Amino acid sequence: MTILEAGQALRSRQVSSLELTNRCLDQIAKLDPQLNAFITVTAESARAQAQALDQELVKGMDRGPFHGIPIAHKDLIDTRGVRTTSGSKLFGDHVPGDDAPIVKKLAAAGAVMLGKTGLHEIAYGITSDNPHFGTIRNPCDPARIPGGSSGGSGAAVATDMAFMATGTDTGGSIRIPASFCGVAGLKPTYGLLDRSGIQPLGLSLDHVGPLARTVADVGIALEAMLDDTRLLPALANCESIRIGMPENFYFTHVSSEVRDAVRKAADSAERLGARVIPVKVPDIDALNDVGRIILLAEASAVYQPYFSRREDFGADVLALLDQGRMVPATDYVNAQRIRKMLLADFEALFSTIDCMFTPATPTTAPLIGQKQVELDGEMMDTRLATTRMVRGINVLGFPALAMPCGRSAEGLPMGLQVIGRPFEEKTLLVLGEALESAMSPR
Amino acid sequence: MTPHLPTPETPSVLKPDIPTEQIQAIQPTLEPLLVRVRSQAEKLPRQADSALEFFPASEAAE
Predict the structure, then answer these.
(1) What is the dihedral angle through the alpha carbons of A259, A260, A265, A271, rounded to the nearest 10 degrees?
(2) Is position A440 annotated as part of the catalytic site?
């Protein structure tokens, strides 16, 4: 059931918010012992919230599409009185005194909070194999990673443990779990959603956004999370949308199944009336390099107060934080300058197209513990291969939607990334919804 | 006034307290990355640019 369907059922009194909440809690009780998507479940307060929201509907008070819908928050987003760990030993006892603004906005929109979802330690990685809170598993194959860092959010939404979950994305952390778990996820334009009350990682790269089962539900969530009106109207329909199909970079070092699935998605968009235009993409390798330098330096700046507690970090995160400490300030400053130069190149490209199709991830979900993946006959580091398609978009700050575009022969989800111009999320959502119906991948 | 100099017991802030074996382990990853970014930096204009604007997309749309 989607948020849209649940909303209709609630308003026709076919179901109550308490029933929806209990269904989600039953799913959590049944599946979470294996998947480990949640760090904290707030069952009692969720039931109390749901009952209160049911009473409001009875009295004719309707807060809108999120009224009575059970959701979860990534466990680095502050929730008043509910432990918020960031997946880290450092914050194992952190109980915020206030909700983050996006938590307040979703609560005001009528969402019921089921609990806090697990993540890669401090959101710095793509496996969600967390040394402090356990390994989060992919619901399509528990031997595989769900992606990260918002791995718990992806797994929870994919298995009906929650209708929607919040995520954060510094180098792909919403889009990678969306791709590996077979759900939709949106990294909005940089700065569109309020990040206060959220544990930072890359200060100039961090984004917060929603993961949900469908693109339509992601759109509903975005509306509820918005705190300004900077979003531009959508292009009227698919016929007026120009889609760039990259001729370089994005279709090399990609599995043949993913490559075919993304091309089929472009064919579907063309059948819907969109114009598909081959494009030469500016230097993504440089963009990714710049993104890595900026993230290394910024994450280490954020965690500088904790460097004396080396034993409290997992080995992979500690290695990245140490790398960040070895990046000279001169290189960080020049990386920011190169970022601006590359941004101009991408703005020029996006003046000729409305969006661009790429794979969200070059492969389906790797196995837990898999250090390398083979792509085009070359062995590549799993983390670098997995972030290759998504990291650069954080450097640009452009919005990007990840959505399912089919299943592999093994039955694993494959993800399409639709990148748009700043503040043009609505165009991505209109196109994504139309594509979702046309491709029926679910 | 005599400037304060670090004694052997006082760790210098100029030297990060990262174990040597960790530095050796991360060197093969970090060094080529820095070399590539420095090569990109050679393309930067010599004249003044507004280097540290962290919010490119937000700014572009406003």
Answers:
(1) 140
(2) no
Question: In sequence order, what are the beta bridge partners of A373?
Answer: A380
The residues, ordered by sequence, that sit 6+ positions from A175 with a Cβ below 8 Å of its Cβ are A169, A185, A187, A360, A361, A390, A400, A402, A415, A417
**Whether pLDDT at A170 is above 60:** yes
| Adjacent-strand bridge partners of A436 | none
Query: In this structure, is the dihedral angle defined by the CA atoms of residues A191, A196, A197 and A201, taken in order, positive or negative?
Result: positive
Is residue A74 part of the annotated active site? The answer reads yes
Chain A positions contacting chain B at CB under 8 Å are 189-192, 203-204, 230, 232, 285-286, 289-290, 292-293, 296, 307, 318-319, 322-323, 325-328, 331, 333-341, 343, 347, 396-398, 421-423
pLDDT of the residue at A237: 81
Residue A404 to chain B, least CA–CA distance (Å): 26
Query: Is the distance from CB of A82 to CB of A149 less than 8 angstroms?
Result: no
Contact A75, A86 (CB under 8 A): yes
Encode pLDDT of A114-166 as tens digits.
999 999 999 999 999 999 999 999 999 999 999 999 999 999 999 999 999 99
Give the 3-state secondary structure of A48-92: HHHHHHHHHHHCCCCCCCCCCCEEEEECCECECCECCCCCCHHHC
Q: One of A149, A150, A179, A268 is an active-site residue; which one?
A: A149
Residue spans of chain B under pLDDT 50: 56-62
Judged by CB atoms closer than 8 Å, whether chains meet at B61 and A189 is answered as: yes
Q: Distance between CA A225 and CA B42 in Å, rounded? A: 41
Rounded distance between C-alpha atoms, residue A213 and residue A182, angstroms: 8
- Overall pTM surpassing 0.90 (yes/no): yes
Q: Do A114 and A41 meet the contact criterion of CB atoms below 8 Å apart?
A: yes
> What six digits make up the tokens of A54?
């049911």
Tell me the shortest Cα–Cα distance from B2 to chain A, in angstroms: 29
Q: Is A397 helix (H, G, I), strand (E, B) or coil?
A: coil
Bridge partners (DSSP) listed for residue A404 = A415
Question: B17-21 long-range contacts, Cβ below 8 Å, gap at least 24?
Answer: B17/A307, B18/A322, B18/A325, B18/A326
Q: At what angle do helices A329-350 and A284-303 cross, to 10 degrees?
A: 140
Residue A149 CB partners (closer than 8 Å, separation 6+): A87, A119, A120, A123, A124, A125, A126, A128, A168, A170, A173, A177
Secondary structure letter of residue A374 according to DSSP = E
Nearest to A404 by CA among A425, A385, A418, A394: A418
Inspect the interface and report whether the beta carbons of A340 and B53 lie closer than 8 Å.
yes
